[in-house]
Amino acid sequence: MEPMLPENNPVLEELALEVVRKSAALSGTLHSVTRKSIVTLVRTMNSYYSNLIEGHNTHPADIEKALANDYSQNPDQRALQRESVAHVYVQQKLEERLSKDPDTSICNVNFLCWLHRQFYEHLPAEFLEVNFKGVKKNVIPGSLRKDEVTVGRHLAPHSSQLLYFLNRFFAVYGNTTMKSVTKIIAVAASHHRLAWIHPFLDGNGRVTRLFTHAFLLKAGVDGHGMWTISRGLARNRDGYMNALSGADKIRQGDLDGRGNLSLQGLVSFCSFFLKTSLDQITFMSQLLELDGMKKRIAAYVEKQVSFGKLHGNSAYLLEAALLHGQLPRGEAPRILNMPERSARRVLKKLLDQNLLVSDTPKGPVGLAFPAKVTAYYFPRLYPEGIET
């Protein structure tokens, strides 16, 4: 699978630098408490888009219900909900693991198998059985495949050779002495090479995207969890698949590197990946710009006022929570410029509708982002018309 990394490529290096710059700017746009709520929303979005790439479409509102342990009575829909919850769970677990132990090596076979095991242990039983070349086979969570697979035109490495390929994968991408710019390019290159190795019988796409999330986090360009590559890949699925397929090609002559695989194919994939990353970072940066968010929150409140569901002053509390992260409940009368009893009623409505949340019955309140407001607060976060 050589070459593993494009070397001395000024175009890729400039793209990588731009990813570093823009992700750093995104990290500082919001109060840390508000940012945590955004991160929760982005995890759900990442689950939605990663599963959409696999052809599994679960409505964001249904994912939200499942995360609250409210599952559909329809078996097929319930299975998709459980799949989405599994993705959110594993992403949260890997983030917690890297937070507790920043030196965790994510490129070794143990971590990759851990991701696969965590994901598949939380799936419904029917997802553990796959039709493989006309024969039903069981997926063993966390175990490397023992069968030979072809993905499109790509014949994946023989199962007996997987550890050799994975050890080489670790040796290159797990190199802790990489320069920061090289590390960003390595995130892109490793995404393809892991998919190319195809280490598991099933779930390789999801594990690869979860691994990539971990790599972006380790590289310090995840924007504190406020953007996801999966949205960009899903929105241009054909381009993503074509870029993956292009990097699968063998070397195209003497001017195409010195490895077995095409250097130009790998460069093209890395360029596609980094441009997609920049597009998503830019999109989220624009979406989270404070003045724009305040206007969209006010517009949502205005609409709810017209339905008789909220008080006209509600936007003041929501905007204050956006800016300050959390608000003591006793601040509501001052912010709303209303008597205490009236202010309590306004606050209660916002809490009842899950527009504000609190950890305790009398504790401070913070901004929440339930599925019902996503289309208003964050237009185009999901495909057109997907929210109800």
What is this entry, summarized?
59% of the residues lie in helices and 5% in strands. Helix 1 (10-27) runs parallel beside helix 11 (263-287), helix 3 (60-67) crosses helix 4 (75-100) and helix 10 (237-248) runs antiparallel to helix 11. A hairpin with a 7-residue loop joins strand 6 and strand 7 (365-367).
Structure explained in plain terms:
- By secondary structure, the protein is mostly helical.
- The protein folds into 2 domains: about 280 residues, Fido-like domain (Fic-like fold), CATH 1.10.3290.10; about 90 residues, Arc Repressor Mutant, subunit A, CATH 1.10.10.10.
- Helix content is about 60%, strand content about 5%.
- The chain is built from 16 helices and 7 strands.
- The strands form 3 sheets. It has a 3-stranded antiparallel β-sheet with strand order 5-7-6. Strands 1-2 form a two-stranded antiparallel sheet.
- α7 crosses α11 and α12 runs antiparallel to α13.
- The chain is globular and about 75 Å long.
- It starts with 9 loop residues before the first helix and ends in an 11-residue tail after the last helix.
- The model has no long low-confidence stretch (mean pLDDT about 95).
